[in-house]
């Protein structure tokens, strides 16, 4: 049997607008309004899950979804001590660390996790799904979508940064453990 996983990226927040590492902020007014406008745009699901962040839970709620679970494997990439700061700020203060982090998927932000570790945990979650023939809607951080795309395509972890994931977009995976197909999508709702 084939399972379908619809990965919906979280709506806009102040951190995303500033290009800052997530600091747990809620959706901004625009993000919440766009998510509410997209309510009903997703097909019915057999299960709904969400990343454990505030913005993912609020996005799910605005979409009219009630997550059954918030699996830890679907958390965003832990930026450690860089949390809440912009990439520009961190690069000015710690240029070598940022260069290493962007170039080497095994390198972690100070106090955070590596891209390779994030990719591995998302892959583990996907491959642990039992093929039910059903559909799972997962409201997740953009990093989770990137990690899932790396896993589905069989690409190396260094490909993680090659996937752009705009807010409130949907990417579909279909398949089962060991073999996933990736269907690229677009924004939910209008505008």
UniProtKB/TrEMBL annotation:
InterPro entries cross-referenced by the UniProt entry: His_Pase_superF_clade-1 (IPR013078), His_PPase_superfam (IPR029033)
Pfam families: His_Phos_1
Protein name, per record: Histidine phosphatase family protein
Organism phylogeny: Bacteria, Bacillati, Actinomycetota, Actinomycetes, Kitasatosporales
């Amino acid at each position: 049997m084939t399972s379908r996983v619809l990965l919906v990226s979280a709506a806009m927040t102040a951190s995303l607008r500033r290009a800052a590492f997530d600091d747990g902020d809620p959706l901004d007014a625009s993000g919440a309004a766009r998510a509410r406008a997209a309510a009903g745009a997703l097909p019915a699901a057999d299960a709904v899950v969400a990343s454990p962040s505030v913005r993912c839970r609020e996005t799910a709620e605005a979409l009219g979804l009630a997550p059954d679970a918030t699996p830890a494997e679907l958390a965003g990439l832990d930026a450690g001590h860089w949390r809440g700061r912009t990439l520009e700020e961190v690069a000015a203060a710690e240029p070598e660390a940022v260069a290493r982090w962007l170039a080497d998927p095994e390198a972690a932000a100070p106090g955070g996790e590596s891209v390779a570790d994030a990719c591995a945990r998302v892959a583990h979650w996907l491959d642990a799904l039992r093929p039910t023939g059903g559909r799972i809607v997962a409201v997740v951080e953009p990093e989770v979508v990137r990690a899932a795309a790396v896993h589905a395509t069989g690409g190396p972890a260094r490909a993680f940064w090659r996937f752009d994931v705009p807010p409130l977009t949907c990417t579909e995976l279909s398949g089962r453990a060991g073999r996933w197909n990736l269907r690229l999508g677009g924004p939910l709702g209008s505008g």
